[in-house]
Structure formats: C-alpha cells, structure tokens
Amino acid sequence: MVTEFSLEMKGITKQFPGVLALDNANFNLRQGEVHALLGINGAGKSTLIKVLSGVYQKDGGEIIINGENVNIDSPASSKTMGIATVYQDPQMIPSFTGYENIFLGSESEGKGLFPVIHRKRLRLKAEALLDKFPVDINLSMPVNRLEAVEKESIAILRALSQEKMDILILDEPTSILTRKEIAVLFDRIQLLKERGISIIYITHRLDEVFEVADRFTVYRNGCHVGTYNTNDGGMDHAKIAELMLGDKLEKIYPDKSTAIGEPVLDADNIRLTGAFSDISFTARKGEVLGVFGLVGSGIDELSKSLFGIMPLSAGQLLKHGKEIKLKTAVDGLKNGIFLVPGDRRQEGQIGNESVSFNITLSNLKKISRAGLVDRRAENRDSYELIDKLELRPRDSRKLVSLLSGGNQQKVVISKGLYTDSEVYIFCEPTVGVDVGAKTGIYRVIRELSKDKGVIVIGSDCEEIYGICDRAVVLYKGKMVMNKPVREIRLDQMLLYGLTGGNNDKEN
Amino acid sequence: MQGSVKNKLEIIFRPNTILLWILLLLVLFFSSRSVAFRSVDNLMEVLRSCGIIALMVLGVTWIVASGETDISFPEIAGYASMMTALMVKNGLTWGLAAGIAISTGVLYGFLSGTLITRFRFPALIATIAVGSLAKSIANMINKGQPLYLMNIDPSIQFIVYGKVFGIPVLFLVVVIIYLIAAWIQDHTTTGQHLYALGENRTAALEAGIKEKRIIISFFALSALLASVSGVLLAASFSSGQPRIGGSFFIDGLTTVFLGAMIIKAGKPNVIGTLIGAVIISVLSNGITMMGVPYYIGSIIKGLLMITGVAVIVLSRKGIIK
Amino acid sequence: MIKRIKENFSLIAFAGLIIIVLVVFSSASEQFMTLGNMLKAFKHLSITAISALGLTFVVAIGHNDMSFHYFSCFAAMTMSWLIGLGFPPVPSILIGLLPAVFFGWINGVAIGTFKLPDMIVTIGLGSAVYGLAYIYSGGSYIYKNFLQSGILELNNGKLGSLPVPVVFLILLYGVSWIVLHHSVHGRRFYAIGSNKTAALFSAIPVRKYIIAAFIICALLSSFTNMIQIAAQGKGYLKGGLMLLMPSWAAVFIGISIFKKPTVYGTFLGAFLISIMQNGFTMLSVPFYFMDFVIGIVLILSIIISGLDVTRIKPKSLLKKRSKV
Question: How many domains does chain C have?
Fold first, then answer.
C-alpha cells in the first residue's frame, strides 16, 4: 500500500503522575526525509520518542506505519517494525568491545542452550556496517576506553545493525560533539537519507535544523504546534523560537540586574586536575553569574568543586575576602555555600521520601530540639517554602518521586533555600523542567541574587544568556570569556563555548 | 632502563596475576615447612578435595558475575547428601538415588530464581529463605542425625577416590567440567549476556536480553551442581550429613571472590574460581599438615578475601598502582 | 474504604497471619496462651529481636551485613574468658563489647570510606574474626566461674516482674525507635539508605553514618549473644551463629509490611518468628523445623508484599549488586 507517510502518529496522549506529557499530539514522517522535532525541555518530544520506541506505552491515539495501524508495546516490537533509536546517553556494557556492544542481544542466530558467538564474524559484520556509516573507530577496543563521540557512533552503528531499519531516531546526537564531528555526522545523515531511511532528528540547536532537516515539527506543552518545510522562506530562528516558547518568549526570563553590589565569592586561579584550570571569577550580590560550557568542558566538575564535593587541586576560594578550604560538602555548607546539583534524580533528591523530608534534610537543626525532629515545625516550614515556590500539588507528605520534573527541582531548590546559605550554585537548573516551572525557578534565582551570591552553571546557552548578568565561558577546562552579558551577543557566547573563540584552535 | 624494569615488574605483579603468586608462595611455604605436605599423595589429596568445592561453586560464580548472590548452595549440598543416603538406605541403587537427590535439589534453584525474577526478592533474602528450607528438610530426613551407609557403589567410589595416571579422577572430571564451562562463558551468548547483566542491567534489558530466563537457569544450575557435590559428599563420607553445608559456606564464597581477582580482574569467572578452589584447598591442607590449629586457616582466608578485594577496587580507582 | 484496605494490604495480611498462628497454637496446646509461656516467649523474642534491631540500622542505610553473628561469637567468648579470669559480670560485658565496636568500625571504614563491596567485606572479616574467636579456648566450652560470677542474672534476673532480657528489649527498642524515627540521625540514615549520592550532596557526613550503622549492628548482636550465653550457662563459641538467619528474616518481614526497614517492622517480624518457634516448641516439634518455618514465613510475607502493588517495593531499597 502506497501512502504519503512512512509513519503517522495521531492523537497520541500520555499521562504521568502530575503531568500530561502528550496531549492529543500528532506527528508524521515521509520516506527518506530528515524531520527535526523541536521543543524546549518538557515540550513532550522525548516522551513522543519513547512511545515510538516502545519504552512508554501510549494512553491514547494511534500509530500508523506504511499505512498499517500498529501496536508498539515493547522496545522489541518497535525494533521489528523497523524503528531504531539512538539515545543521547547510549547505555553500554563498559568492558565489552565496540562490536560486542553493537550486537548485544543479537550475537548469534544459533538456537539451543548455548548459541556460539563467533567474535571474528561479528567483528567483520561490524566492520561491514562501517560501509554504511564510515567512521574512524577501533571496534575491538572496550567501550570504556572510547571517547563520548565514539560511543555515539557505536550507538548509531548498533541502530544500523538492526535487521529492518526504516526509521532512525536521533535524540540530540550533537550535544557532545565538536563542530568538526557534527559536520561529519551531517554527511553521514545525508548518506542514510539517500538509502531511503527516514530520520527523526531531535535537537535544540536551531541552526542545525536548517542545515540538516527537510521539515520540522514544533511541540509545546505536549501539543503539536505545527509542521513546516525548512526551505519555505519566512522561517528564521526568531520565528521558531517564538513557536517553541509561545507567548512566554519575553516573560520567561526576569529582568536583568540594576544594582551590582559587593563581592561574595571569589575564585582565584582554581584548578581541578583533569577537569579545569586557571579559572577566576567573582560572584557579587545583586548579579547572577553565569558559567556556560558544553558537556565535558568542566562545568559539572566546577559546580562540584565550588561546593566541596570534588576538592580543588590548586587555587583559592575566598568568601567575603577570607580564604575557605572545602574538602567535603559538609565544609561547603558550613561555609554558607549550597549546590543545586545537575543530576536531580541521582544527586538532588531522595525520591522515596516526602517533600518535607527532602526540604529539611540539609538543615535539620532548624526543626529539631535536642536532636529530636519537631514534626509541627517541619510541616510549618515546609509549607512556607512550598507556597513560596508554588509547588504542586500542595502536599508536604507527597513522595518526591511522584512529582513532575519541575516540582522535583523546586523541592531541591527549597532544600537549598532552607539552609539559608550565602552563595547558591545552580547546575543545569531547568533540565527536564516544564516551561511554567522554569519561569518560577528563574524568578527565584533572580530574587536570591539580590542579597546572595548566585552562580548558574550550565550547557544551555540560551538559559545562561537569559538569566545571567555576567557570563563566564569554559572551553575544554579553560576560561575563554568573562564579560557582562549586555556586552555580548548570544551567538558570540555560544561560539566561544563551541570553539574556545578561535576557529583555528579547532582540533 | 629503570623504566623498562619497572614495566616488567608491573606486568608480573599486576593485580590480575597476584593470586597465582599467592598460590605459588603458599605451596612453597608449606612444602618447606612440612614433609607431609610435599608428598605426592598429599598433593593429590589437595587436588581431590578441591574438586568438590569447585563443583559446588561453579554456578555461584556465574550468579555473582550476573550481579546476584547465592548463599543457599551449601544447604542444598547438605540436602542432596541426606536425600541420597535416604534413598540408598531404602534399597534404591546409587544411580537412582543420586538422580532423585539431584532432580529434587534443582527445585530449590528454580524456587530462588522465581522468587528473584517474579517477586523481585533481593537475591540475598531469597537464597537465605530457600537455604533455610533446604537445611531444614535435610535435618528432617533423619531427625537431625547423620545417616550412615554400609556400601558405596563402586563407580561412584571410583569418581570420588579413584585415580587415573596417579591423578584423582574427581579432579580430572572437575577440570573437564570447568573447561566446558569456560568455553560456555567466553564463547556463547549465554556467557556474554551474563556479564552484560552484571555490568549494566539497563543496557542489557534495552538490548532485549532475556533476564528472567538467564537468572532462573543460573540458579537452577547452581542448585544442580550443589546437589551433585552433595551426592559426592555422601559417597566420600559414606553417610548423609545434614549439617555438612555449614563448612562449605565460607570456603565456597571465598573461592568465588578470590577467583574474581584474576583473569577478568574484578569479575567472577570460572577459571579464577578453579584456581581459587586450589588455593583454599592448599591452605586448609597445609595448615593441617603443619599442625597449626585449623581456625588459623579461616583467619587467613578471611583476610585474603578482604585484601584481594581491596587491591582490585583500589587499583581500579588509581589509589594503588 | 477499598483504597484504604489496598494501601494497608500488607499490614492487614500480616495481622491475619498472626491471628491464625495464635489461634492454631492455642487450640493445639493449652499452655500456649498462659502468662508464663508468654513471658518465656518474650524472653526468647528478645534474642532474635535485639540482634535484628542492629541489622535494621545497616539495612536502613542501604547495606548488607553478613558478619554480625561472627562478631557476636567473638564478643561473647571475650566476655566468657574474662568471667573465667574472675572479672565481675558488668566489666566483662563492657570489655567484651569493645572488639565488636572495633570490628564494626573496620566494616564501616572498608565499606563507607574505601567503598569495598559490603557482602565480601563482611563475609571475609566475619570469618576471620570467627577464626580468631577460637584463641580463647580452642573452641571448647568455658565453664569456669560461670555459675558463681552472677553473669547468669543477665538472662535469669528480673526487674520487678520483667525478666532482664525483656527490660533490655524494651529499652533498646525504645531508644532505637526514637533515634531512627524521631531524631535528625534517623532522617540521615534513611536519606543515605535511599540515595547515597543525594545524601552526600545534602551535606550529610555519609561515611560517619555508615560506620555508625555497622558499629550499632555489631554491638547489638554481640550483646544479644551475651544474653544467650548467660542462658546457656557456659561460654559457647557457636552460639552466635544462629543469629544470622532469624535476624535477616525479621528485618525483611518488617520491610515487607512497611515497605522500608523500620524499628516497629523489625519488631513485628521478630515477634512472628518467635511466637511460631515458641508454639512449635510447645508442641514438641524438633528444633530443625524452625528453619523451615522461618523460610516459609519469609517467603510468604514477601510474596504478599510483592502482590501489594500500591507502594514502592522493597527491591529498590535492597537490591544490591555484589560487584567486585
């Protein structure tokens, strides 16, 4: 049966506790096209992909592949329908070689109790895949000794090894690649396209959309906003951004600072061996200091060093001009510093405990007498913060794991606010947070900055540009920029983050 | 020049090979201190006695490698030894008795595997529960007393005590089983998937590896081998011993954890386990031969186990190089 | 209403189980429901319950301990040896507990500070310590001074009408209940147990708490074993070994009722195990049936909690990977 679309998704609905992730959403894909799926974090694009790849079960709607209504109820059934997914952070077996990872789960066609693995044959098969997707990579090396980029390539090769592969989903494949590698990747994508493979391409980098995609679809708040051709004149970055953000475009970030005050935290040539070096900046009252860098540029380690989790190898940290030494997070908190960590699930929250348990966790002294917890005080103080940050549902007993991403992040921030620290560090503060909660979080950050030192660290350049008054940019562990935000343009800042500000330095 | 010497030293004394050096040192030490130890007969006895324990923990090795735990194996062995004795006492042939003991013993493995995969028991708890069932049933068979046997079937006698070219048959059989197991471990998808499960379960499940089937089969296999060693124990003691298991608990786990230190640094593997079993056997035997109280052995084994793990974990973190 | 029942399914199922057990035993044996027997049952309960209480702390912090029963052997033998040398009971007990603190500390440092796998460390250290316990008497009984020293009072003595072990049971459970469920320390124990990294990022001194948990576990099981030794009337090396299984079973039955390790859950678990053991003793069922009972009760209670899908399963708390 000939149809216009190789894939059609109609009226897809997906409900999570506390959030409607997909609300009657549509999507379609032509054969042999690259179709970009756009939307800010929490718009529903990753949920849509997970429904398509069988990780989540849809609550409503239908999926039509090549004119046939299909039922995708597991990752395996998605695969048999010719759908392959390459996730942003592909899961691998660290000690296995590249080709072993590529063929994990399909090593052998042999049946019986002990199907034999012919490693040589697998390696040759894997090398044959390199014809379809030529990358320079040693497939016999254990993957734990490979670079992030190489792992990404292995994941794509794994998708290509699938017996039937008509639809390839690439989930933010460029987020950890360098400029040069991105160009190579785009060449490869053209190659796949010519073979008739349809590609769903998820990204938040708008320039990539015009470079690689034929059409794009914008999602917002779990709804389909529209599908457009990239070569239809009249579409530019600003227009797409408007579609992605809706009417919230201006309101999403609070006003910039007007009164910059005294310094709170000084970093003087700090270094963490293997992560970053020679970084100096000053966080002042009244302004938000932003640190922008790509994943792997040392930003994550920097956030941990400033809190004491990864003690500095050299350099000085000065608070109000006095040197402080941080060996553990306990030291960090004692010195009036608090970190809202980047990986909320792993580092931020105790998921199977209540909201109030989490909020009070770092300052239990405040609600205890003689070491005993006063539940009434706990409840009172928790609700104070719950109301201040507009946490929904308004319930201090609710388990944190049952909240939406945005509310979870608000719990972690509340925990920080409850410690009444003098310096707040936010690392990737709005990952997995919906738009509504995002503006709320930005508002809190701005308000805090009035009489505290606030540092926002992240890889989302729009966010850093939007929320901060002064921007520090890291590139491969070095500081390549430290300027007031009003003196630079967004694309300038991004360029420094991507290349270190000098294209010749590109490796 | 100095650098290359250092490199050579590093290759020889990698954490990966440290266990072999320990084994060598132990053998040299005991041989120099005890004439009885270095006699050929005794060395062969060392190999024979390591056979039973090696057999008992082959399945456990894979279970631990796949990220689970099994502590029910000694109790299942005790059960099988009692069951064999009971059946023989009731007039069954040894072959039939062993068959019944082994086939019922496997059921414990299926039970553990089901509790873990279907009901999501932590493996430690599932095997504590199943182990206590096995232990209790073993005791019920003869009111908590051993069951003595008059005649041992000659063919089983041959497996337990016989020698071919001067080498104990039991050891030869176990070595053959281990070679087959090593092949399965390194050259079939079963072995591949088992390590995948142990290293990154999310990735393994995403790749469509059949977790439940693999875990249940390994627990069944572990129970099967524990039962077989129980039958051999019954033959070697000429009796069913309901509490024989206890003495194999520490030795068995030490064997597996020691074995994890070589070949695949940090991961349990069958060849490692076999070498671990020889070390444990040398230690126990050597200490007896030197006339040192046997509990010194358990102190040494315990410390060896912790030191070994510490060396692996710390060397991986780069604290020890 | 139905929702309430669903939410408390495990608790209701557990209450039903206890009622059935009580009815069956009291109809089978007239002596079962007498006050005298109940006191005896409680005295017996103290032994399992106190040891399980210590383990509750380790499990709450997200670790496994397979060494406390071995440590308890060493501690009780130290005490017996001191009694044999003519020391009075109280100093003997206190000095006997010192090695337990030391070994618990080693566990905690190895696991908390050096991040070694808990199963291997505890089994390894436990067996080494158990071997070490032979030095006191080469494994034979210590009778010397036992009857005259007054150590037997640890088991036989009474405070008012309550047997001493029951007094300790109440005392230790009371304190632990306050510590784990009403103090800031309890909050930190649970925070570490559910998400160690997040606890670290919340500025909780994680290592210290892990060390504390292993010390508490070693201490309480050692103390239990001393009571048991006092009941036996002789220093007895293997006495502590039988603590392992019922302690784990009690903690896990508790988890299956309340979905996380709790002081009251552990108590109920120990209670169920003890009344069944007592009931079977009344019916003159031989000792070796006890393991069977524990095994079955453990499996049943966790299957029941596994059927209860409304809450978080205990798996997430305890599924540990024993990777080297």
Answer: 1
Choose the mutation target among A73, A91, A143, A161 for the interface with B, i.e. most B CBs under 10 Å. A91
Chain CA centroid to CA C221, Å:
6
A5-246 is a CATH 3.40.50.300 domain: yes
In a 3-state reduction of DSSP, which class is residue C248? helix
Q: Phi and psi of A398, rounded to 5°? A: -60, 140
- The pTM of the full predicted model, rounded to 2 decimals, is 0.86
| Cβ separation A105–B188 shorter than 8 A | no
Whether B190 sits inside 8 A of A104 (CB atoms) is: no
Can you give the residue ranges of every domain in chain A? 5-246, 251-336+455-501
List the single residue in C184, C187, C201 with the smallest CB-CB distance to A348: C201
To the nearest whole Å, the CA of C205 is away from the closest chain A CA by 7
Probe site for chain B from A56, A95, A101, A122 (most B CB atoms < 10 A): A95
* Cα–Cα distance for residue pair A179/A498, rounded to 1 Å: 7
* Residue C116, domain member (yes or no): yes
- For residues A118-133, one letter each, b for 16 or more C-beta atoms within 10 angstroms of the residue's C-beta and e for the rest, the string is ebeebbeebeebeebb
Alpha-carbon distance A441 to B220, whole Å? 53
- Return the structure tokens found at A271: 């270094």
Q: How large is the angle between the packed helices C118-132 and B246-259, nearest 10 degrees? A: 130
Q: Measured in whole angstroms, how far is the alpha carbon of residue C277 from the centre of its chain?
A: 16
In tens digits, what is the pLDDT along chain C, a chain of 324 residues? 666 666 677 788 888 888 888 888 888 888 877 888 888 888 888 999 999 999 999 999 999 999 999 999 999 999 999 999 989 999 999 999 999 999 999 999 999 999 998 988 999 999 899 999 998 888 888 888 888 888 888 888 888 888 899 999 999 999 999 999 999 999 999 999 999 999 999 999 999 999 999 999 999 999 999 999 998 888 888 888 889 888 999 999 898 888 889 999 999 999 988 888 888 888 888 878 888 888 888 888 878 776 654 333 333 333 333 333
A vs B: CB pairs below 8 A: 60
Question: Which tokens belong to C320?
Answer: 């540990």
Host H or E run for residue C165: helix C164-182
ipTM attached to this prediction: 0.86
Residue C104 inside a domain? The answer is yes
Of residues B253, B267, B270, B262, the one with CA closest to residue B305: B253
Q: With beta carbons less than 8 A apart as the criterion, state whether A143 and A153 touch.
A: no
Task: Find the domain containing C74 and state its range.
Answer: 36-241
Q: Give the SS3 label for residue A288.
A: strand
Task: Tell me how far apart the alpha carbons of residues B55 and B72 are, in angstroms, rounded to a whole number.
Answer: 14
Contact A114/B188, CB-based, under 8 Å? yes
User: Domain count of chain B?
Assistant: 1
Instruction: Please report the residues numbered 143 through 202 in chain C whose beta carbons come closer than 8 angstroms to any beta carbon of chain A.
Output: 178, 182-188, 190-191, 194-195, 197-202
- Looking at the domain assignment, is residue B222 inside a domain? yes
The tens digit of pLDDT for each residue in B240-276 reads 888 888 788 888 888 888 888 777 767 888 998 999 9
Residues of A in contact with C317 (CB under 8 A): 352
Given the structure tokens 């010519």, which residue do they identify?
A: A194
User: Which residue range forms the structural domain that includes residue B103?
Assistant: 18-317
Best C113, C176, C190, C202 residue to mutate vs chain A (most A CBs within 10 Å): C202
Domain membership of residue C102 (yes or no) is yes
CATH architecture type of domain A251-336+455-501: 3-Layer(aba) Sandwich (3.40)
Domains A5-246 and A251-336+455-501 share a fold: yes
* Sign, Cα dihedral of A191, A195, A196, A197: negative
Secondary structure element (H or E) that encloses residue A34, with its range = strand A34-38
CATH number at residue B187: 1.10.3470
Length of chain B: 321
- As a whole number of angstroms, the distance between CA A456 and CA A465 comes to 10
